[in-house]
Amino acid sequence: MHQRAHRVDDIHQRWISCREADGQSVREMRAMWRAIAERLNPIIGILGVGALLRRSLLVNQDEHAWLADALDASTGGADLLESFCDKLSAQSPAVAIAADLAVLRSLHDLLTGLIGDSLTERLLHAALRPPSAGAAAQDSPP
Fold first, then answer.
1. Cβ 102 vs Cβ 64: under 8 Å
2. Three-state SS at 64
3. Are 70 and 60 in contact (CB under 8 A)?
């Protein structure tokens, strides 16, 4: 399990460091969580994603008490992700990054326990692929 946590930490750090230079790290976390939900929704459904996220928030609310506010503000399902992201955006970048990583680790561990390491890695690989530094959407020449 230590090796899995290390991989998630590395991926998270690369994702965040791609955006720290321009001050967008907290905003980009929302994009990461939406990408995770998009990858998991077809497999476990919106309620399944919500259940994994809810458990991940519960596991980490002792260390990050404000996560309880995200749980309280949500009625469950898809709005839990938005509630979590809203509360995340309200934190300082350092606090948000620490909590984001803790919740991501928990979600990764829960999913690994349910479906195994290999399938978890395949499902989350694209969602957790860090954005390329300085990448901008550009039209391809005709």
1. yes
2. coil
3. no
pTM above 0.85, yes or no: no
What does the chain look like in DSSP terms, one character per residue?
A: -HHHHHHHHHHHHHHHHHHHTTT-HHHHHHHHHHHHHHHHHHHHHHHHHHHHHHHHHHHHTTTSTTHHHHHHH--STHHHHHHHHHHHHTS-HHHHHHHHHHHHHHHHHHHHHHH-HHHHHHHHHHHHSPPPTT----PPP-
Integer Cα distance of 33 and 44 in angstroms: 15
| Per-residue pLDDT tens over the stretch 55-100 | 999 999 999 999 999 988 877 666 899 999 999 889 888 888 889 9
